[in-house]
Amino acid sequence: MEDLQPWAYGCKVGRGLVVEIRPNGQKYFIVRAFQDGKEKRKHVGIYPEMSLREARIKAVEARRDIFAAPAEVKCKTTFGEVAQEWLKKRMGDKNAKHVEKTKLRLNKYILPEFKDTPIQEITSGMVLKLCRKIEARGTVETATRVKGIIGQVFRYAIATDRADYDPTAALKGALQTRRVKHMAAITKPSEIAVLMKNINNYPRFIVRCALKFSALVFCRPGEIRQAEWRIYSHGHMAVRLERD
């Protein structure tokens, strides 16, 4: 026992008894048993407060208790039911636009796949398959967002005792990441002139106006898109921006 090195792993002792060694060096006696294909775990003691001999005796009692207990009734609550409850309980105080986008992704991508599926039957493979379909359309960032929403619903389900684990936790690094292409800044007057000519010839009127306005006020794209008429002072030819 003393030779076991600190790390997050388990060392099998026999008959379902395992010594789990945590990164902090503590050694825990855990009994593992399988009932109806599902793993059951029970903590029986900590080394060296409990000797290996005592742990073996406790393990026999713990396995007897596990198999004597009635089999758990599998939760039949569907993903759709938990998702709707999560929206009401956890998203009520969020930004309206964020909630709208979340509902859109739920209704467009997630619920058509998992709405009527019992939440405990959804696996990491099923979530990955859905995300791969979204990636195949070229919407890499949407796939990541969808995985995040599914994870949030599952964490709520775990907290409310309707799921045992979050299948998205195993998908870390499994999805593509959006490649960001950084554009060099334009600093030469001749290049700025070419840019402004191209903006002036842009066919879409609203976008063309937004680009021209951006060149005048040097605001962020989000501030340009969300600007309201009340910030303009036509008499003074000025724009009044509010501090965040």
What do you see in this structure?
This protein is an alpha+beta fold and 244 residues long. It has three domains: 9-68, Double Stranded RNA Binding Domain (2-Layer Sandwich); 79-171, Tyrosine recombinase, N-terminal domain (DNA polymerase, domain 1, Orthogonal Bundle), CATH 1.10.150; 189-239, no CATH class. Helices cover 45% and strands 14% of the residues. It contains eight helices and six strands, in the order ββββααααααααββ. The strands form two sheets. Strands 1-2-3-4 form a four-stranded antiparallel sheet, with helices on one face. A two-stranded antiparallel ribbon has the order 5-6. Residues 5-9 have low confidence and may be disordered.
**CATH fold descriptor of the largest domain:** DNA polymerase, domain 1
Radius of gyration, in angstroms, nearest whole number: 28 Å
- Write down the secondary-structure element order: EEEEHHHHHHHHEE
Show unreliable segments.
5-9
Number of domains: 3
What's the total helix number? 8
Task: Report helical residue fraction.
Answer: 40-55%
Task: Please give the CATH class of the largest domain.
Answer: Mainly Alpha
State the major sheet: 4 strands, antiparallel
CATH architecture annotation name of the largest domain: Orthogonal Bundle
CATH superfamily of the largest domain: Tyrosine recombinase, N-terminal domain
